[in-house]
User: Fold these one by one.
Assistant:
Number 1:
Amino acid sequence: MADELIFYTNPMSRGQIARWMLEEVGAPYEPRILDYGTTMKDPAYLAVNPMGKVPAIVHNGKVVTECAAICAYLADAFPERNLAPDPAGRADYYRWLFFTAGPVEQAITARHFGVEPDVDQQRMAGFGSLGAALDTLESAVAGKAFVAGDRFSAADVYVGSQIDWGLQFGTIASRPAFEAYAAGLRERPAYKRAKEIDSGLIAEMQAAQ
């Protein structure tokens, strides 16, 4: 089928990031809800993503995994939605999209697992320390409605999701710049639609337990 767009996810996962991006794009998509440990590890899905993790999308037969990549891909695949800056304005777009996907998420994961790099280890670790990563992230959003330029982009979906999620679950300490940036993004209609869909799916799953 022309323009087929399949979305593999679980509502209790990073799939919420991709869901928000899909709602921003506004193109029809077919959601396929997978379960941890069962359908997510089934050979049929492993053929899509050998990591056995979600989210993943298949667009016109092409697979894209990893949330930052999905956000960037969809912005390019649907240029009429203006979710990426013009090529000449993409420095901040790429910088903060991939900084958040790399050092910030690595630093948060390390802290969650109780890993605190010493001074020598910080020189080797791409994220340095959680404090350094969050200070840098704060500099990217302080006083701004959007992380890259003067309009919303796919980078805001990813960066905003990480900050929103981190504030909600306490993996990112509350700072005025983070709170203000996230508050503005939560007002977007696509954000609200995505949250409503995933919250409904979570409620259904919990009711079925």
Number 2:
Amino acid sequence: MLLIDHIKEFCKVEFEEVNLNFNEIEIQVSKENIMPMIVFLKDDPNCLFDQLTDLTAIDYLKKNNRFLLVYQLLSVSTNNRIRLVSYLSEDDTVLSLSKIFPSSIWAEREIWDMFGIFVDDHPDLRRILTDYGFQGHPLRKDFPLTGNVEVNYDSDVRRVVYKPVSLVQDFREFDFSSPWGATLEEKSIKKQKS
């Protein structure tokens, strides 16, 4: 029996879809069923997905459930991979997998820091890639491109200081004409007129 058929037949956890994408099984579940599905995939003797290899998110700004949470699992004994996905709204939270996969601690901190997805029951939920005083979540599609503050080390005060972003150059219109005469386009226009 194929693994995808086994999951469809024996998994008691309710799922929305099971597909085969790029020769890997992808299961879509609601946020409430993430934990039970992962426990099934880890403990079932025909699955044995004993390693969480990645956990990330994707921001689809215009959707009601704007975040797609993506869990990548590996079965070391069978060398199979599986992807578990779940859509979340901006206010949704998810349960931490740290008691099942301790390796999830850093990845969960990253989705909190970068996307602002809150992880319940996390042992140490704090920023991991940005500074502790950082405002916002940089991988959200609505995060400002220039940011709000600059961070620099000030050797006079011997600490990191925050300063408002100041663009030192106004936006300009550039003249791309060749300094050695007319551009190729201008030469072809003159040629056509004569």
